[in-house]
Design a protein that fits this description.
Elements: E1 20-22, H1 24-35, E2 46-52, E3 58-65
Parallel strand pairs: 1-3
Antiparallel strand pairs: 2-3
Length: 80
């Protein structure tokens, strides 16, 4: 079995710029989840899915909402 190569994005103080390409479906999904959130919800939490292109650009191709409940300053995710 070949060893897999993992790339981890780390954000810190650096002079290098980071470029991202966000597909229109992602923007639509985020807006749709925000509009459909329960009346008492103040925020929407989700996950972005994508990859890093050979030129270093982060290519965000999809997203989905993560169900959660607000408890004080913490937001636990459902394990359902």
């Amino acid at each position: 079995m070949a060893a897999s190569k993992h790339i981890v994005l780390q954000f810190g103080t650096s002079s290098a710029s980071l470029s991202a390409k966000i597909h229109p479906l992602v923007i639509f999904n985020i807006c749709d989840c925000y509009v459909r959130r329960p009346d008492q919800a103040e925020r929407v939490i989700g996950t972005l899915l994508g990859s890093i292109l050979p030129d270093g650009t982060v290519d965000i191709r999809n997203s989905y909402a993560v169900p959660h409940s607000k408890s004080s300053d913490q937001v636990p995710a459902y394990k359902g």
